[in-house]
Specification:
Blueprint: H1 2-10, H2 17-20, H3 39-58, H4 63-83, H5 85-93, H6 113-137, H7 140-159
Helix pairs in contact: 3-4, 3-5, 3-6, 4-7, 6-7
Length: 161
Amino acid sequence: MLLAGASLGAVGLGPALGACEATSGQPPTPTAAAIDPLTPVLIGQQELLATYKHTLAAFPDLTASVSDLQAQTSAHTEALRAAAPAAAGQVAAASPSTFPAQSGSGPDQPGDVVTARSDLRRAVQVAAGTLRAAALRADGDLAALLGSCAASTACHVRLLG
């Protein structure tokens, strides 16, 4: 546990190592002020990419219709990582329990392709909303990047029908 606290402290998410001794053995939870505003956006993008991966693994018949959308989501995620290195560092340094998943512990696999497509559409819709909200809070080039990603992702919702 001390090692996890040290890595979080190194990226500014936790208190100094000396303060870890006074805790109950649990790594400190980052405060809202210490979390980069784009960290939850990047976590959401990673969750969406995981949803694509699990869906395509379970339903390879969807590959032709959604692999391009998955590739675009991956490109959005990489562009956001490059534009927000502090958030990318927080996501990379965090354990899964540091930033709880926004959509639960992971998707259960649906039994049929229609439900899988609907579930994927819902996940994409959540990501589009998250990107849109972040774009409205951002300034300058970052707002433009987030707005572009949000618009593209909103199109993915329509394409998933």
